[in-house]
């Protein structure tokens, strides 16, 4: 039912109520404060603002009931927008409006009973019912539109801050502090960065991860790029990473890399690079989670992927040019030898062959590369090149260095 304008009897009752607007405002304000804790405690709206809002909305309501034509609903819309900005809950707002309408109706009853005007009271009741629908519809629409705009603006700002965090765009301490405050993260907290490979454009490989972490009391911030979903996760303690890794392993649908544990939000961009390196260490097309927990040498290699890949190609070029099967056997043996700290026996156990076979392969490697496994300088170069090749396997396909 739509309100189509005031009938004479309704206009007369509205005029009588409007003459006592200060009293009506006082009683409406008192009921709202007494019956609704959210307003009684001034949680979102001060008592002064609430009283002014009661007066304005009651005046507009009585004017609409007392004048012919389409009612002016601008005050209802204005209240809806204001309460959305203040964060007041919509159900509480609608309840406060109903209290105001009830107070107006009670004034109509008082006047109509004293004048024995039952017909006028019936007409006023119909008008009030029609107007309450239009008021609440207008208020709700304005509230929701404003809330949607606020949410969109906050979301866009959050995305911009997360982007700045991951790209290192934090030129000043003030900017970093603003990012920490907006994302509800500690400036000097303990963190890890996660990089998960997307299964397709715009698809999250870890759907709902932020909410799942929040349920476990881990704050985090995430963004989605065409090829990665990346996030920084706040740990309550350094050993908390184990629980995060378990959750990631359960959710993983592809390759997931995790940075070392680090301190200070300003180091997020660096940690993202290490998380990406960890991801790249997994074979494409596989599913799993791996954390970058390598030595300082691995960090140095990871800091410059292009130079490290060129180093791997320069040092290991003769072996990389061998047929695939032969190349794989020799590189696997060399990696095992480094992992086993130069022990031929342990290397043989690792690669499932006789120690003499290991010695033969190692000699083949040194002959091909023209380097010695007893010269510290050669060992250092070989170890670095091998680690770079592990982190950046595409180095095996680089063109020869001129």
Architecture overview:
There is one protein chain. With 402 residues, the protein is α+β, with helices and mostly antiparallel strands. It has helices spanning 8-18, 21-35, 37-40, 47-66, 74-86, 90-115, 118-167, 173-183, 209-215, 241-251, 268-280, 296-302, 305-320, 324-339, 344-351, 355-369, 376-391; strands at residues 190-197, 220-224, 228-235, 255-258, 262-263, 288-291. Strands 1, 2, 3, 4, 5 and 6 form a six-stranded mixed sheet that branches. A hairpin with a 3-residue loop joins strand 2 and strand 3. Helix 2 (21-35) crosses helix 4 (47-66) and helix 5 (74-86) packs parallel to helix 7. It is rod-shaped and about 115 Å long. The termini are far apart.
Look at the helices and sheets and give the structural class: alpha+beta
How many structural domains in the coordinates?
Answer: 3
- Helix content, binned percent: 55-70%
User: Measured on Cα atoms, how large is the radius of gyration?
Assistant: 36 Å
Describe the global form: rod-shaped
Number of helices: 17
Note the run of SSEs as H and E. Answer: HHHHHHHHEHEEHEEHEHHHHHH
Q: Please give the largest β-sheet.
A: 6 strands, mixed
Number of strands: 6
**Strand residue content:** 5-15%
**What is CATH's topology name of the largest domain?**
Globin-like
Runs in which pLDDT lies below 50 for 5 or more consecutive residues are none
- At the first level of CATH, what is the class of the largest domain? Mainly Alpha
User: Between the first and last Cα atoms, what is the distance in angstroms?
Assistant: 85 Å
What is the average per-residue confidence, as pLDDT, rounded to a whole number? 84
Just name the CATH architecture of the largest domain.
Orthogonal Bundle
Family: Belongs to the CdaR family.
Pfam families: GGDEF_2, HTH_30, RsbRD_N
Organism: Amycolatopsis dongchuanensis
Domain PucR C-terminal helix-turn-helix: 330-388
């Amino acid at each position: 039912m739509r309100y189509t304008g005031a009938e004479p009897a309704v206009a007369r009752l509205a005029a009588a109520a409007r003459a006592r607007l200060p009293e009506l405002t006082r009683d409406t304000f008192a009921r709202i404060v007494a019956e609704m804790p959210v307003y009684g405690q001034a949680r979102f709206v001060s008592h002064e603002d609430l009283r002014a809002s009661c007066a304005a909305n009651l005046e507009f309501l009585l004017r609409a009931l007392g004048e012919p034509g389409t009612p002016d609903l601008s005050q209802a819309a204005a209240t809806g927008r204001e309460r959305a900005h203040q964060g007041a809950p919509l159900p509480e707002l609608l309840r406060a409006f109903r209290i105001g309408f009830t107070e107006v109706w009670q004034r109509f009853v008082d006047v109509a009973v004293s004048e024995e005007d039952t017909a006028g009271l019936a007409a006023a009741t119909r008008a009030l019912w029609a107007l309450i629908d239009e008021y609440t519809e207008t208020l709700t629409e304005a509230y929701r539109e404003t809330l949607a705009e606020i949410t969109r603006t906050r979301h866009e700002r959050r995305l911009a801050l997360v982007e700045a965090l991951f790209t290192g765009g934090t030129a000043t301490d003030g900017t970093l502090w603003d990012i920490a405050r907006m994302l509800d993260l500690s400036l000097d907290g303990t963190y890890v960065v996660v990089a998960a490979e997307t299964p397709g454009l715009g698809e999250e490989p870890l759907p709902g991860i932020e909410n799942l972490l929040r349920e476990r009391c881990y704050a985090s911030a995430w963004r989605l790029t065409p090829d990665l979903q990346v996030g920084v996760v706040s740990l309550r303690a350094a050993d908390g990473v184990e629980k995060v890794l378990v959750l990631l392993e359960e959710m993983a649908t592809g390759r997931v890399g995790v940075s070392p544990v680090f301190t200070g939000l300003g180091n997020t961009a660096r940690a993202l690079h290490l998380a990406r390196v960890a991801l790249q260490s997994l074979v494409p097309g596989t599913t799993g989670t791996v954390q970058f927990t390598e030595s300082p040498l691995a960090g140095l290699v990871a800091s410059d992927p292009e130079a490290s890949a060129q180093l791997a190609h320069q040092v290991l070029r003769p072996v990389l040019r061998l047929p695939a099967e032969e190349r794989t056997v020799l590189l696997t043996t060399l990696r095992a030898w480094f992992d086993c700290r130069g022990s031929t026996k342990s290397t043989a156990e690792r690669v499932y062959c006789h120690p003499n076979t290991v010695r033969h392969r190692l000699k083949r490697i040194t002959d091909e590369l023209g380097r010695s496994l007893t010269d510290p300088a050669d060992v250092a170069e070989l170890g670095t090149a091998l680690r770079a090749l592990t982190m950046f396997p595409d180095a095996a396909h680089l063109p020869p260095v001129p």
